[in-house]
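S.,

Sequence below, as promised.
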Amino acid sequence: MAQEHTFASPAPAGLGALAVACFGFAAVFLGWVKAEGLPILFAWLVGGGVVQYTVAVMELKDHNITGGNVFLFFSAFFMFGASLSVLAKFLMIKFGMAPHVYVEGWTWMAGAGFLTAVTPAYLKSNKLIFLLVVLIDIVLWCIVGLDLGKMDPAVGKPIVGWLLVVSGWIGVYVAGAVVCNTVFGRVIYPIPAPFVK
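The prediction came back faster than expected:
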């Protein structure tokens, strides 16, 4: 549903921040990041958290209950909470401890459950955003399975990594489409209609 904003919609910036997290975590899950890269990921996630929190507040102010709440939840847990977790894991590894991620399986269960519960609301968004949310649902449930030891890492990590890459690119495309289509007042990048009007 279109929202009237007192400012221009910040949602494209929020999608860009989501892409940062998706690409960063994809590289980790695909095994391309050494432990020394984790503090750098921490820094980028903090930056993304600032963007997503700002987007959330503005969207909620303009009565966008779906986007506002999802960006708020993601700023807290996909960005700030995850950044602190990444930093904690780095420090544990550097001090010779093995991170026990089992507890994160339970915390990610809340994130996966929340996003899955609100996913039907995205049927009123364009089809690409709906697809993005469904892919992130799958990613989060896979992370739950990995952290709880219920999913084989050799199978689960590549699934998570590549779905995050796809999700990140969807976020980048939609962000570019919203900005360019708005600036030019016509379709520059096509965006599919919602499933439900």
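Residues 19 and 62 are 24 Å apart (CA to CA).

Coffee later?
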